[in-house]
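Q: What would this chain look like folded?
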Amino acid sequence: MKYLVRSIKYFFYLILILALVIFALVTFKVVDGDISTMFVNGYDSLWQIACIALVFSLCYPRFGFTTRRAYIKGATEEIAPAVKSVMENHGYELETSEGEDMTFRKRSPAARLLKMWEDRITFTRTATGYNVEGLTRELARLVSAIEGRFDSVE
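A: My prediction, written as structure tokens:
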């Protein structure tokens, strides 16, 4: 279900960006305001563009969101405060903490808007540390920072 919701959000996000670009081009008189002359296939181009946006939006959640492992040694009581500290330093705040699992959200409303409210980072405790789920580009930074924090302690 998350996959479908993310795809729908991304589809509308792509269409909005495209509409803003076309609006800017028409406003600055780079292209004619008539759709039949603006695109090679005229009005038929609109559904073709929508189909292309649909394909991209269906593929994006597969590559844009992932789960990575953060290998951290120690008891939860020892490592959870450091994980929270790293997350706060990267602009996140603790949303929920259930047992050994935690979820974080971006602190800034503007950052949340730019990420289409898909900014949640979920930490699920495992025997070797945490499984971290969220945006792929964010996880690379966060997991590296967390593991680096614990590598420097040892």
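The two ends are 41 Å apart (CA to CA).
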